């Protein structure tokens, strides 16, 4: 085991979180907010806008400008088959590592499904042929929505069954082909053919969207760059945190930590954490801060081992904020800890529900954030499928119809 250079306790980890995640001190714009976090979760489209607002005060138009006009922030399928919004300079690292891993998994799954469903006798050949067909179609005739791709290539309307029980569904194979190309970086999510809360991308050839096709890093170099970025945003973190966040193997994480010269530190509870070699200086507590973060926000989801953000409540609070799969709903934060959740009523107003007693200053600050967010949303209601159990309890008692 590596020798710890110093101890970083939970208080300092929360101080680091507040400063580096642009929550104690806002940054200038959407790009700066994205860089602060390495990337923003984009599984739910509205989360990108809400996460940028929480860190920079950016309006919806400013976020859309970064995504679709400046293209300084780009949505990309990557770690754990999840959509993230990355600063464009990180894309070569992502394409060579986390996204390449997902693309490989998707190709194998698609080939197996084609044979199991009786669509093809040679699933590998079918996958290669249709990936090439869709890639050329989008390069020559794009940007195209998924519906337009299916219209142009009717063979992609064939359906396969996924899941079991209540989660079983028949899905068109078009989604498998497009998801694989998106993971590989051959195509990207271009302009959104819908409102800001809806994901209806016009798939676009990467070179056309970015104006160039940056050279991809090798797997080793890509993981190293991602690990370095993550450590600057989230460090100290454990090896388990990185393996989970990257969706990678322990060996890949250990090689990356060695490549960037990461330094071991001890953490409360006895675990070993890692930081960049120039990041050993103590971080002082910032001024008190409050934040309302959206579902799957990177601050909520950045670590596998999250107890230091849950305070003395630990497991009991986790069960009220996270679902059974560990997905976090909208959360209320005070000085680096989750102290409750937030939700919207049918009239669009934002309500904060505390899970514990907090100082009066915290209550006032969170209420002020709720007023600010209500104004920012301007009557728009965002419904997340990742609402926390605590929020669902209060929505049900309020008679709101946000559970559908």
Explained architecture:
It contains 17 helices and 14 strands. With 404 residues, the chain is an alpha+beta fold. Among the domains are: 98-210, Arc Repressor Mutant, subunit A (Orthogonal Bundle), CATH 1.10.10; 290-398, no CATH class. The strands form 5 sheets. The protein has a 4-stranded antiparallel sheet, with helices on both faces. Strands 1-9-10 form a 3-stranded mixed sheet. Strand 9 and strand 10 form a beta hairpin. The termini are far apart. The relative contact order is 0.12.
Number of helices: 17
C-alpha-based Rg, rounded: 22 Å
The total beta strand count reads 14
Unreliable runs, pLDDT <50, ≥5 residues? none
Q: What is the helix content? A: 40-55%
Tell me the CATH architecture of the domain at 98-210.
Orthogonal Bundle
CATH top level label of the domain at 98-210: Mainly Alpha
Strand content: 15-25%
Instruction: Describe the largest sheet.
Output: 4 strands, antiparallel
The 3D shape can be described as globular
Helix and strand content put the structural class at alpha+beta
At the third CATH level, what is the topology name of the domain at 98-210?
Answer: Arc Repressor Mutant, subunit A
């Amino acid at each position: 085991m590596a020798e710890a250079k110093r101890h970083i306790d939970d208080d300092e980890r929360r101080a680091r979180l507040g400063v580096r995640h642009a929550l104690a001190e806002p940054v200038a714009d959407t790009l700066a907010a994205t860089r602060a976090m390495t990337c923003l979760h984009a599984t739910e489209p509205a989360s990108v806008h809400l996460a940028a607002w929480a860190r920079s005060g950016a309006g919806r138009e400013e976020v859309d400008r970064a995504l679709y006009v400046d293209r300084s922030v780009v949505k990309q399928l990557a770690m754990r088959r999840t959509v993230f919004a990355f600063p464009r300079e990180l894309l070569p690292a992502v394409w060579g590592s986390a996204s390449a891993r997902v693309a490989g998994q998707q190709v194998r799954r698609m080939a197996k499904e084609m044979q199991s469903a009786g669509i093809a006798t040679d699933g590998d050949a079918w996958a290669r042929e249709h990936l090439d067909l869709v890639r050329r179609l989008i390069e020559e005739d794009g940007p195209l929505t998924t519906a337009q791709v299916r219209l142009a290539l009717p063979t992609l309307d064939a359906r396969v069954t996924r899941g079991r029980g209540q989660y079983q569904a028949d899905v068109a194979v078009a989604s498998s082909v497009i998801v694989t190309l998106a993971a590989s970086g051959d195509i990207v999510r271009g302009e959104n053919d819908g409102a800001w809360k809806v994901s209806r991308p016009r798939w676009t050839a990467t070179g056309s969207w970015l104006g160039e096709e940056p050279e991809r890093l090798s797997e080793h170099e890509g993981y190293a760059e991602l690990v370095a970025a993550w450590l600057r945003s989230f460090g100290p973190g454990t090896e388990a945190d990185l393996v989970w966040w990257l969706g990678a193997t322990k060996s890949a994480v250990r090689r990356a930590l060695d490549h960037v010269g990461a330094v071991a530190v001890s953490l409360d509870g006895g675990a070993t954490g890692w930081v960049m070699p120039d990041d050993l200086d103590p971080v002082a507590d910032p001024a008190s801060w409050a934040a309302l973060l959206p579902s799957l926000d990177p601050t909520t989801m950045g670590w596998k081992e999250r107890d230091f953000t849950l305070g003395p409540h630990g497991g009991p609070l986790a069960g009220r904020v996270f679902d059974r799969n560990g997905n976090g709903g909208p959360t209320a934060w005070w000085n680096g800890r989750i102290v409750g959740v937030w939700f919207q009523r049918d009239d669009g107003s934002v309500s904060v529900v505390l899970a514990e007693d907090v100082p009066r200053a915290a209550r006032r600050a969170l209420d002020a954030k709720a007023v600010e967010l209500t104004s920012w949303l301007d009557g728009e209601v965002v419904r997340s499928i990742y609402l926390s159990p605590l929020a669902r309890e209060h929505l049900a008692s309020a008679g709101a119809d946000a559970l559908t």
